């Protein structure tokens, strides 16, 4: 948006961040709710100490992801009409990144726990490693490369750089 003010840009960016969080928070909450029920199932007592630690990591990281994805909305309520939207946008972006990282940990450890329970630790470790790599690449690595491509094309002079007023 070329002719938007800083305040309008902050408003638009915050709405976009909340839309992204809305998608993620539903999945996180379903995973977290499922993980909260696991210890009450009859098979949970058969888990060894290593699997209990995997469960712990999955549960705590799902809770962290939930907190991070919900934080922008809660903080918006507290900071409503305080003129702090740009701060809230920067902070919400950080919480979104931390929430995605925590979600990747929770999904990976939960999958590892279930695969270990059903098959063996070797298959569980390989699968969890592949899932972690996929999440890290698709959620962080590929976008980081896109950012680096964008910054090199905008500083190189020969590319079709996006004007800074239209970057988010």
What report would you give on this structure?
By secondary structure, the protein is mainly alpha-helical. It has one domain (6-156). Helix content is 79%, strand content 0%. It has helices at 6-37, 49-78, 85-118, 121-156. Helix 1 runs parallel beside helix 3 (85-118), helix 2 runs antiparallel to helix 3 and helix 3 runs antiparallel to helix 4 (121-156). The termini are close together. The relative contact order is 0.12. Keywords: Membrane, Transmembrane, Transmembrane helix. Residues 146-168 are annotated as: Disordered. The chain crosses the membrane at residues 21-41, 53-72, 93-115, 121-140.
Give the topology:
Elements: H1 6-37, H2 49-78, H3 85-118, H4 121-156
Pfam families: DUF6328
Protein name: DUF6328 family protein
Keywords: Membrane, Transmembrane, Transmembrane helix
Structural class comes to mainly alpha
SSE order:
HHHH
Q: What portion of the residues fall into strands of 2 or more residues?
A: under 5%
Domain count: 1
Question: How much helicity do the residues have?
Answer: over 70%
Count helical runs: 4
Morphology: flat
Q: List the uncertain runs.
A: 157-166
What's the assembly state of these chains? single chain
Calculate the mean pLDDT score and round it: 87
Rg, nearest Å: 20 Å
Number of strands: 0
Report the span from N to C terminus: 10 Å
Largest sheet, strands/sense/barrel:
none
């Amino acid at each position: 948006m070329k002719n938007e003010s800083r305040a309008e840009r902050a408003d638009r960016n915050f709405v976009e961040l909340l839309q992204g969080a809305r998608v993620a928070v539903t999945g996180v909450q379903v995973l977290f709710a499922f993980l909260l029920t696991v210890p009450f199932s009859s098979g949970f007592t058969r888990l060894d100490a290593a699997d209990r630690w995997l469960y712990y990591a999955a549960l705590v990281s799902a809770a962290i992801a939930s907190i991070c994805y919900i934080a922008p909305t809660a903080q918006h309520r507290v900071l409503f009409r305080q003129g702090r939207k740009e701060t809230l946008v920067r902070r919400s972006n950080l919480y979104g990144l931390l929430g995605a990282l925590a979600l990747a940990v929770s999904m990976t450890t939960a999958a590892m726990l279930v695969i270990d329970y059903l098959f063996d630790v070797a298959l569980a470790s390989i699968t969890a490693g592949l899932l972690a790599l996929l999440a890290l690449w698709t959620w962080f690595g590929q976008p980081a490369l896109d950012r680096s491509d964008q910054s090199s094309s905008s500083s190189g002079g020969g590319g079709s750089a996006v004007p800074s007023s239209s970057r988010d």
